[in-house]
Amino acid sequence: MIFSSFKIDKDTPIYEQIEKYIMIQINDGMLQKGSKLPSTREVSSVLKVSRNSVVTAYENLESRGIIQSVKGKGTFVIESQQQTDNDFVLKWDERFNEYGRKCNELDIMKTEVPWKKGMISFKSIAPEEKLFDLDEIKRDFQTICANEGSKILNYGYAKGYKPLIDYLLKYMEKKGVIIQNKDILITNGFTESFDMIISVLTDKGDVVLCESPTHNTAIKIMKARGVHIVDIPMQYDGIDVEKLEKAIIEYNPKMLYIIPSYHNPTGIVMKGEKRQKVYNLCKKHNIPIVEDGFNEELLYSSSHMPPIMSLSGLGNGVVYLGSLSKILFPGLRVGWILADKKLISMLESVKRSRTIHCSTLDQALLCEYLNNGSFEKYVKKVRKYYREKYEFAIREIKNNLQYKYIYGEGGLHVFIDLGDIDARKLLKCCYENNVIFMPGDIFFPGSGGSTCMRLGFARLSNEDIKKGIKIIGQSEKEIRKQV
Ligand SMILES: Cc1ncc(COP(=O)(O)O)c(C=O)c1O
Hints:
The chain is of the alpha/beta class. It has helices at residues 14-27, 40-47, 51-63, 98-105, 108-111, 134-148, 162-174, 189-201, 216-224, 241-251, 272-284, 341-354, 360-371, 374-400, 423-432, 462-482; strands spanning 36-37, 67-70, 74-77, 120-121, 182-187, 207-212, 228-235, 238-239, 255-258, 289-292, 318-323, 335-340, 405-407, 413-417, 435-436, 438-439, 452-456. Pyridoxal-5'-phosphate binds next to helix 8.
């Protein structure tokens, strides 16, 4: 009971004392925003004071906007601690460094229109969690606890959980990569892998080449670390190789960052011939290729493309960033970097100095799931599920939207160029009708993409896909009428 230390002072009106007491509790942090106050009846009975005094105190605090009574629920604190002259107060926003400011400024979760309850959102490209087999995960958890014992909860190794590294080395071998002289570092997903690569291989102002459009998180990481991004336009089958060569010659970049399979946001799968050309070019000019291998497993129709790394044989010019995030358990935050042993050894020290290592429990859980055959079964199931959704979304887009081009061959999203309609204008109109999507411009490191949009569909029911795309189509028609 918050009034346990309340002492009555005979010379001051009771209601004033109660008011003051509650204010002190709020200022001391004992009562937080949202805390429920005892009822006036309870307070009057505990303090042995008239109920009217308590009611007056509560009413006064309510009129000052400090508490609020909600009919049938009670009275709640709505104001948090008040500042006093005694408090140690700093202006934090004046103390952020450039890195912090840039991360904040580039955070699309804060800058783009938010999802509200009841909206149909095409923003996300996260996998559908209903497909995750939670019972299997529970069994795997029991297995690792039985096999590993309590040491699984102790410190592990910076490089990662050995059985997972061994699994992933074999997994990459099956993809055609020669693993001799290469090694793996386990990371917290692509996002950490790429941040590590950029922070150890570039200095402020260095040039990195990438596709345009590209993964928004990669743009954010590069900009936040002060990298000079030179973006190379994409053609309908992937990066423009001629422009890539020109940029390599002009800028002598530190690396090329590329997403060859089910590219985000376009969904393009770069064909073998183009992969070879990109590889040959970078090899000729000694430019490391940082290959983002996410989504390779999401094969729908075309035959599987070996990663660019598989072209390098015993060479070490390609760094492969692996992630299963779009397929399986992105919440575990487990990804990997496959690269030359010397590079991995250095990254291992960086990992140790940053976070020591990724959660061993999470790595072991993923490892058990991968090793016991669950993964193969699951991938077959999700491929079919997502392919059907993808085909359904494409049909609805073709039936409802007027567009210039639909990109790509799969993934968990569709990238559309509307041709002559401003996607942000369309988004504003759709937002009013409870539908949101990703405007294309956020994927372009420079300017561009103003007529493009990305529709993520993995977590939407067919009913919502149909309804949402219909609304987008109607909004588009409205805008076309105005121009
Ligand atoms: C191009 C690309 N690479 C990698 C990832 C996976 O990132 P992470 O492993 O950090 O979840 C994503 C997720 O959206 C992506 O779009």
